[in-house]
Design a protein that fits this description.
Elements lengths: L10 H5 L11 H4 L5 H13 L6 H16 L3 H12 L7 H17 L3 H21 L3 H14 L2 H14 L6 H17 L3 H18 L2 H17 L3 H12 L8 H17 L2 H8 L9 H13 L8
Length: 309
């Protein structure tokens, strides 16, 4: 799982809400070069072969949850994390931390703020305890991420700046990707959009070093969204097109979100024909709640029937 600010790195910008954390699982490690749907099918098949709560089951399930998170499939992620948390079973601490973290982000996106904050509190408690016993910079990024979403943004920014300085010479692509991605999101959350752009570019650089398609598309999408928000619409348009060209499947929720943003951008640019082409590619059922209003607003502006798209 990659640490994103929901990003970890991406749903904050994609939903104007929050998204990120890491128990060091990354679904693309176990099925490289496969599309997310193909990887999902393989992981679910493998999961069914192991006894529930066995070591192998936890390994596969942790990567499956990461896949849901990284591909913005938040509804099933919300349901699964709550199911596992309420199972009555004592999970390994790393898996329990992952569950709390994902649950906090997913419930926050679906506007269940009380539950989200409680899950975040539990995640922070476990991450902090683990970090004290086993110091790890990625754990510190997790703490900063939780602080950013549910605590004090200034504190989170200071923590991430210290990490960026401390590990500035590190060649660890995963660590650098997480530090700069979350630092960009921290600045974004405080309205410092221009200041976040160099860190967005660094995030994309390290995402390319990692070489994972979903990581690259998310980093590109976040950079594009930032360009859009500062009024650099042509740059945003071009960067979103770069991001979309990397998708292996149109079933990804982010594919529809990016197409929706392109429809919004081209409407603002006055290219209604291009806007209509992009909104026609949006799969309504793949959108997050925060995007539905924009979808309907654009459909009306473009004189389209949303139910017919």
């Amino acid at each position: 799982m990659k640490i994103r600010y929901f990003t970890l790195i991406g749903v904050w910008l994609l939903c104007a809400s929050a998204k990120a954390a890491d128990n060091l699982h990354n679904f693309e490690d176990v099925c490289p070069n496969l599309s997310a749907p193909d990887c999902s099918a393989i992981l679910l098949e493998q999961q069914s072969e192991y006894a529930r709560y066995s070591t192998d089951w936890y390994f596969i399930t942790a990567h499956y949850l990461d896949l849901l998170y990284e591909t913005t499939n938040l509804k099933p992620l919300k349901n699964l994390t709550e199911q596992y948390l309420n199972s009555g079973h004592t999970h390994p601490v790393t898996f329990q931390t992952q569950l709390y973290f994902y649950a906090a982000k997913a419930f926050d996106i679906y506007n269940e703020k009380v539950k989200a904050k409680e899950y975040a509190k539990q995640a922070l408690k476990l991450v902090s305890a683990t970090s004290e016993s086993f110091p790890n910079p990625l754990r510190m990024v997790e703490i900063a991420n939780l602080e950013m979403v549910f605590g004090d943004k200034d504190t989170a920014t200071q923590m991430l700046n210290r990490l960026a300085q401390q590990y500035r010479k590190s060649k660890d692509a995963k660590l650098q990707h997480e530090i700069y991605g979350n630092l960009a999101n921290a600045l974004y959350s405080q309205g410092q959009l221009l200041e976040s752009i160099p860190h967005r570019k660094s995030t994309l650089f390290w995402a390319r070093k990692l070489g994972f398609t979903d990581t690259i598309t998310m980093a590109s999408g976040n950079l594009a969204r930032t360009y859009q928000l500062i009024g650099q619409l042509q740059l945003a348009n071009d960067t979103y097109h770069d991001a979309i060209s990397s998708f292996k499947t149109e079933e990804s929720p982010n594919y529809s979100i990016f197409q929706l943003r392109l429809a919004e951008i081209n409407t603002a640019l006055g290219d209604m024909q291009a806007a209509k082409q992009h909104i026609a590619k949006v799969k309504f059922t793949k959108l997050l709640p925060s995007h539905l209003t924009l979808y309907h607003q654009l459909a009306i502006k473009l004189e389209l029937n949303p139910t017919a798209l």
